[in-house]
Structures are given as C-alpha cells and as structure tokens.
Recover the amino acids of this structure.
C-alpha cells in the first residue's frame, strides 16, 4: 500500500432492480472495495451528493471507510458543479466511482464530466487496481475473458466495472462508528426537469418479424430460442460424414471465424 | 442513371409516399442518396474486422434517424493501418463509409479515438453521431466525444420519435423523451438489425484532417490467461457436453487444446459430471460466446434459451432431427465419441505437441 495516496470514492444510493429496495449501488460498492484494497482506510473518503438522511449511506461506512461527506442538496438538481468544487479543493490522487447510477438519469456521465472539468485522466470499467511507485496499474476485462493491463500516473479517475471483485459485507458496528459529515451545498438547475417522463413500457416482442412457416416456428422465433444471432442462409448440416472429415470441417469453420490459435 | 432509383432526401416525403418509393424499388438494385440534407454518423466497433450484431442494430437506429430527417448514414470505422472491413456494409443500410486509419487504433487509445471522432463530427458537420452502449467500446467513446463537443448525450436511447429521442432511465423504470443532442448512445437490443437486404451505396468518403492526440494511459497489453478457467459467461469459445457424451477424458483434453471454456447441459450437471457453475440454460447461465460447440446435446428449449445470444453454433449429434441441429450453423451428424479423437489428433499435430 502506498501511504501517500489519498482516495475519494463517489457513492450513490442504489435500487434493487427487482424489489426496488434501496441498497448500496452494486458498482459503487465494488469501487469502495477496490479503494479499501489499495489505500489505508484512514486516507479514504466517501463522497455523496443529495439527501444525507438515508440509512443506506451508512452501509458504505460499514465496509470500513472512516468518513463519508454528503453534499446536502435536494433531489432533482444538478450536483456536478458542487462535486467538482469539492474535489478540486480536496485534490485526491485517486477518484473511484461506479459506472452508472441505478436510479435517476443513470447516464454514466458523472465521471466523464468530472474528469473533463478537473483535467483528470479517466479509465473506464476497471476490474482490478494496484499501486506501484506513484503509478496506478489497472486491469480491464475485455470480451472473451481476457484482461488488459493499463498503467496511468496519478491523479486519476477510474470507474469500476462489473468484473471487479465483489464488495465485502457491511458491518453494523463499523457503520455506526463511521462519521457522516453533511455539508450544505448548492445544486444547479437541471435541464432534465423539462424532459417528458413516463413509466417505461416493455416493447411487445415482434414475434412475426422475419418468421414464417408453421405456428410452432413463429412461436419459437417469438420466444427467441432460435434464429437470433444466427446469420441467414449459410447453415450447413452434414449427415453420413466420417469422423475425420467431420473434424476437418469443424476446424476449418473455427479457423475461418478466427477462433483457432488465439 | 437510367434504370436506377434516385431519391432526393430534401423532398419531405410523407410516410405513404416513402412507402411508395420503397415499393417501386426493385430488390438487388442499389439505392442512392445524393446531396443528403444531413449526415448521420454511426461508429461501429467491429468484431474481428466484421460488423457485429451490436453494430448492425446501431446501423438500424442510424437508418431510422436518417430516414426521418432525410439524411444519409455514414458508417465510421477506426481501423489500424492496413486493415479493411470484412464483409459488405451495403446490405446494412449504409450510404457512406468513412475509414480513419492510425496505428494507434490497434491498441487501447480512447483519447486518440475521441479527439479524432470529434474532429470528424465537426468537419463533416454530422447532425448526429450514434454509438452502441458498451462500457469499454462505444459507450466510453461516445461519452468522451460528447465531452469534447460540449454535448449532453442521450444515453440508453431506445426510440426515435420525429426529432426527439426517447431514453430508458431510472434503472429501467422511466422512459424520458428529450430533444435530440448530437451524440446518441443506443441501448443494447433496442433496435432490431435491418431485416430486408436492400442494397445501399456505401460510397467511400475521403477522410478529413483530424488531430492526433497523444494517449495519457499506457497500454500494457493483454495478460496471459488460462482459457479453461474463464467463467462461461465471459468466454469467447465454449465447448459444451450433453447426454450424448460419454468420453469425458477426451472432452477435457479437447477443451484444453481448443482453448475453450467447458460447459454442460442440465442433464450432465445433474449427473455430477460438471459443476453447477458450468450449466448452460434457463436455470443456469445465459451465455453469449462468439462460438458454442455442442457435443451430444439434443437442444431442450431451456438449453436453447441459454445460447440464444451465441453468434455461431457448431453441433455434433447423432440425431438428425434434434433441435440443436436446427439451431446450429454447422451441424455434424455423427457420434461425439468418434469426432473428438479426430479433432484432438489434428489439434496436437498443428500445435506441434
């Protein structure tokens, strides 16, 4: 652990996608977990903008962070200028946050906006983080199960993706012991208030699209267990083929798709 | 020009008139858009040099935007030096193609890409530029480009209505309609890929001048990994066993030689041949590898749900009428116990082991 590094983790109030219960936002909790692994707990500050009263905020403190600063402002205002001003004063060497909020606009723009405003380097969706001689070494989960290593000097803003280590449990005693500072702050008016909002409607599945033939085929197309992702027209079925030829065909197909000897 | 359909997008066609134009058009003929009033960009991230499923639905969204504004779709590609797009974009509703080449596009260089794209958007005066939502690819790039353009992008775009955009927000509970900004980030699966294969021109555009930004993040390359240890919901190549598989030692050797993650149907997991984490299907994992090799799997409907998002499926099964054989892109009607040793021999020879 590099004792000179101070870290701030931006945390939000999450919402369970099924039950709607308030909870630690999944990716913010992963960000707290990563921060606890790379900096000593006393150099870690959690930052939240909004209502300081929800008990969920203490769940983050229960993970082991000693303090949480809440920039108190009503919901529905733009918290970005206040967050930027606080971070500019604190100037931490490492800022971590989740990828997108689980409630509200959830645009995922907060880290991008802050990085742009504060002139910080931004690395998205990291899955691991270590510190070495004033530099952060990060890994990103690229498709296919591989990990890409990235190096970046501090100060740095990184968002933590879903492949990062899972968050530790929140301990009740630590949650009580942690200190929650509520600092009154000003939110700016948000253009989002003027946008027309209505409850989301699930789009009807287009069962008939591209499907023809018998009722069972249309049902299968609507259910999505065939056809989707399958390119039309070039399916091959080889019957009465001996194993040696079959092996050649399979390897030829894999080679053609660039999946062999990666 | 004789015999070719000319469409002037500046003419505001009503829905019915547009349908008439479409009906007149003969399949196989190239549809051209001359002097479009707007250019709509679509930035494809590609998969092994090909347009991926996400790119195709991105182009469908761009097509819808362009048609409602009377514009043309520009497919924008960021390619390493000397690389070309594999496949024909003309079938994907593309009017123009713009290729930017730089050696840095081979590695991880978000700053280089974002500055290049924002320059292109400004120079070509693209009215909108679309990205597909993907935390490391289009989603990241689109947000960076929006910051460079000073834009508040529409994220999670699910619909285009006149010149407004509808986005899913609030954790999927609310649909918000807002004036369309320049940068649109399209939610995954919101637009079905263009179904009819009407050919478009896909004319190549000359690349404008763009600034080359230096990267601030150093790319350390991909780490060594053991493909077999990758969780099946992350793996690129998955080899999977069903009830028709009895030779388990060959199965494990084959997976190792192919560099594939191992999976199984509910039947083999229940029988104790594979761990529960390896189960594919409705009650296991829903996976989306680039290729799924099914050995001796009949293809119960619950299992097929698990592989609905697989791009390519290879099936080896003794039953010609199995559902898995119908789902497969390449189906071999043979016994997996006979095919596996043949595969292993060939892979050992080619790896020199």
């Amino acid at each position: 652990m590099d004792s000179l590094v101070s870290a701030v983790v931006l945390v939000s109030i999450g919402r369970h996608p099924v039950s709607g219960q308030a909870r630690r936002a999944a990716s913010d909790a992963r960000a707290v977990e990563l921060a606890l692994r790379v900096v000593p707990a006393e150099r870690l500050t959690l930052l939240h903008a909004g209502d300081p009263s929800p008990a969920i905020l203490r769940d983050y403190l229960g993970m082991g962070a000693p303090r949480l600063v809440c920039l108190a402002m009503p919901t529905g205002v733009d918290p970005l200028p206040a967050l930027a001003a606080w971070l500019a004063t604190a100037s931490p060497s490492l800022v971590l946050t989740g990828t997108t909020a689980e409630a509200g606009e959830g645009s995922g723009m907060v880290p991008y906006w802050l990085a742009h405003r504060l002139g910080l380097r931004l690395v998205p969706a990291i899955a691991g983080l270590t510190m070495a001689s004033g530099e952060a070494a990060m890994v990103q989960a690229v498709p296919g199960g591989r990990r890409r290593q990235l190096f970046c000097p501090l100060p740095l803003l990184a968002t933590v993706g879903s492949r990062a280590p899972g968050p530790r449990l929140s301990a009740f005693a630590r949650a009580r012991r942690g200190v929650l500072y509520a600092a009154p702050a000003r939110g700016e008016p948000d253009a989002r208030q003027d946008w027309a909002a209505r409850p989301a409607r699930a789009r009807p599945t287009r069962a008939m699209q591209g499907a023809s033939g018998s009722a069972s085929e249309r049902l299968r197309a609507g259910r999505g267990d065939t056809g989707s992702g399958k390119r039309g027209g070039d399916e091959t079925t080889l019957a009465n083929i001996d194993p040696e030829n079959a092996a050649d065909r399979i390897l030829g197909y894999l080679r053609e798709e660039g999946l062999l000897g990666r | 020009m004789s015999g070719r359909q000319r469409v002037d997008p500046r003419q505001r066609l009503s829905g019915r008139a547009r349908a008439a134009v479409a009906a007149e058009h003969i399949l196989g003929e190239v549809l051209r858009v001359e002097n479009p009033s707007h250019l709509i960009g679509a930035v494809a991230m590609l998969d092994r040099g090909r347009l991926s499923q996400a790119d195709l639905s991105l182009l469908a969204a761009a097509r819808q935007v362009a048609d409602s504004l009377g514009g043309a779709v520009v497919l924008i590609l960021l390619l390493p030096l000397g690389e070309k797009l594999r496949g024909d974009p003309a079938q994907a509703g593309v009017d123009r193609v713009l290729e930017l080449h730089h050696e840095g596009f081979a590695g991880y260089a978000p700053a280089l890409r974002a500055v290049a794209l924002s320059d292109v958007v400004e120079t070509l005066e693209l009215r909108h530029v679309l990205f597909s939502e993907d935390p490391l690819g289009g989603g990241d790039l689109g947000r960076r480009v929006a910051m460079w353009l000073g834009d508040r992008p529409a994220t999670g775009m699910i619909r285009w209505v006149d010149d407004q955009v509808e986005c899913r927000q609030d954790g999927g509970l609310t649909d918000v309609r807002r004036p369309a900004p320049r940068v649109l980030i399209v939610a995954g699966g919101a637009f079905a890929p263009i179904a009819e294969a009407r050919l478009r021109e896909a004319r190549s555009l000359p690349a404008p001048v763009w600034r080359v930004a230096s990267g601030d993040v150093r790319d350390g390359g991909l780490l060594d990994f053991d493909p077999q240890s990758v969780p099946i919901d992350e793996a690129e190549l998955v080899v999977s066993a069903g009830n028709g598989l009895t030779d388990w030692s060959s199965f494990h050797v084959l997976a190792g030689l192919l560099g594939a993650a191992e999976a199984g149907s509910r039947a083999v997991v229940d029988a104790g041949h594979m761990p529960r984490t390896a189960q594919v299907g409705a009650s296991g994992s829903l996976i989306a590898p680039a290729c799924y090799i099914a050995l001796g799997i009949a293809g119960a409907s619950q299992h097929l749900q698990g592989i609905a998002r697989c791009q390519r499926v290879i099936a080896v099964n003794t039953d010609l009428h199995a559902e898995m054989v119908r789902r497969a892109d390449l189906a071999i009607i043979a016994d997996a116990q006979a095919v596996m040793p043949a595969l292993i021999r060939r892979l050992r020879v080619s790896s020199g082991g």
Summary: The CA atoms of residues 95 and 157 of chain A lie 5 Å apart. The first strand of chain A starts at residue 7 and ends at 10. DSSP finds seven helices and 13 strands in chain A.
